């Protein structure tokens, strides 16, 4: 006889029942209430979650990027950063804590979260709810050129999400205009400072070049021809001066000889002091025609003439009458000597100029080379500064690239999330799966015998007969009460499960966003 208390060891093998229709019917007969309870419990939890989830609305505004109206051939923009980079930079600025805190306070967003957590939590939540999406077209070079972008905000109030989205879009447009103006103005200011510094450097170089030309202008290449011509002229004047001195010396010697012969009656033969002195002076005059006074032979002969002259002077110690012709010649010789010294000084000056010309010319070329490059740099900066000022002026008038609202955000009519049908289908599959798993676990953990074949295979003794369980009135009444209380307990448990799921999932936007249409 089979009873509910019949058990067998877990490790004792028992012929497994066939998974046929009869076996499944038997399993369903034994486990239908367990399966129904598991199904209903899961359905209550899923229903509580679906009912408690809030509706989320998504509002999107599209912003078109208008290219500059003036051709870049006439005006080069000062803002050269890539458009994608600038848009994402503006997005980071708009979603900063200060900006989002202002918007949250203005529209009273996330009131429950702000009551339970600091403002940073609301700012982080809004950052997740704000979405930026760039839209572009393919270019022949393989790159994608951005022509517009969309700003999306997700929230519970359709009118509020539209207002917040339009506010965010306005912030994008204003921030782009301000950042372009700041960058253009900053570029112009930097270039203006560079132009001033380059102008000061150029003026300094101009002053140095002018001072150099004023100081060493007579030693430069343009004056080389004039210096050489002047040097030749001075050399000719020196030769004429030497010839004039030689002639004057000859005249003086002849006058002296004649006067000496006439007054003293002394001879002028070749062996006399006057004769030797005359011969030496003739030789000295001949040397002076061909050499300067510093030439060694001239110096030596001059010393001999001086010595012999002393002897002659000693002989002619007696006072002689002053000869007007000699005084005139001496005055002429003195003047010629003074002219000769001046001419030699002038000659040395021109020679020094000619010798310094290569060095001065290299120095001037170095100054000029630096001056020319600095002037080119200054002119380039002036052009860039002019372009930057024009670009800044056009940026203030928004004649260059700007953002324009193509489609403003409107209050959505239907929520984007949650997708309750999808959640319902998922919940139905989950209920069926949990019911099947519960039945499977119940069957695996049940060690009682359900058929005569199972008992016979366990004890290896033929089963002669089976006796059906016949309940009494008392047992039937007790069974009905048990079923009533079990049903009530099951209903209470289902109600508690549904209420608990409703409470836990109430206001949970994370589940909603996972099922959002075109979700984040």
Structural features, described:
The protein has a 4-stranded antiparallel β-sheet with strand order 2-3-1-4. It starts with 20 loop residues before the first helix and ends in a 6-residue tail after the last helix. Helix 7 packs antiparallel against helix 10. Helices cover 68% and strands 7% of the residues. By secondary structure, it is α+β, with helices and mostly antiparallel strands.
Q: What's the topology here?
A:
Layout: H1 21-52, E1 57-66, H2 83-94, H3 97-107, H4 111-116, H5 119-129, E2 130-138, E3 144-155, H6 158-216, H7 224-264, H8 273-290, H9 296-315, H10 324-396, E4 402-407, H11 420-445, H12 452-459, H13 473-505, H14 509-514
Antiparallel strand pairs: 1-3, 1-4, 2-3
Helix pairs in contact: 1-11, 1-13, 2-6, 3-5, 6-10, 7-8, 7-10, 8-9
Search tags:
four-stranded antiparallel beta sheet; 520 residues; alpha+beta; Bacterial polysaccharide co-polymerase-like; single chain; 68% helix
In brief, what are we looking at here?
By secondary structure, this protein is an alpha+beta fold. The chain has helices at 21-52, 83-94, 97-107, 111-116, 119-129, 158-216, 224-264, 273-290, 296-315, 324-396, 420-445, 452-459, 473-505, 509-514; strands at 57-66, 130-138, 144-155, 402-407. Among the domains are: 21-54 and 416-514, no CATH class; 57-196 and 399-407, Bacterial polysaccharide co-polymerase-like (2-Layer Sandwich), CATH 3.30.1890.
